[in-house]
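Retro notes (design track)

What went well: tokenization of the new backbones is finally stable.
What didn't: we kept losing track of which sequence belonged to which structure.
Fix going forward: every design gets posted as structure first, then sequence, in one message. First example under the new rule, 81 residues:
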């Protein structure tokens, strides 16, 4: 599929998040590795899409198919706002 190699990272995180990261890594290192790969892959894809956009091309407006006027809205107890 693709070549892999080990990488050692040191990251400063808030204590609570650091505790969670250590616990997840200890409990399921394979999941932790997949989560890191997923996050970095998303960042790489986004970066490449941004590079592919011409500098004078404005960003496309957000569109949410199936929502009221194509824009997000809140539903509170059956009422939309």
């Amino acid at each position: 599929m693709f070549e892999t190699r080990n990488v050692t990272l040191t990251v400063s995180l808030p204590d609570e998040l650091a505790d969670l990261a250590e616990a997840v890594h200890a409990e399921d290192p394979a999941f932790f590795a997949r989560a890191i790969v997923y996050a970095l892959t998303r960042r790489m894809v986004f970066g490449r899409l941004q590079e592919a956009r011409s500098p004078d091309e404005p960003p496309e407006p957000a569109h949410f198919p199936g929502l009221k006027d194509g824009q997000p809205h809140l539903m509170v107890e059956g009422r939309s706002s």
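Added context from the reviewer: The mean pLDDT is 77.
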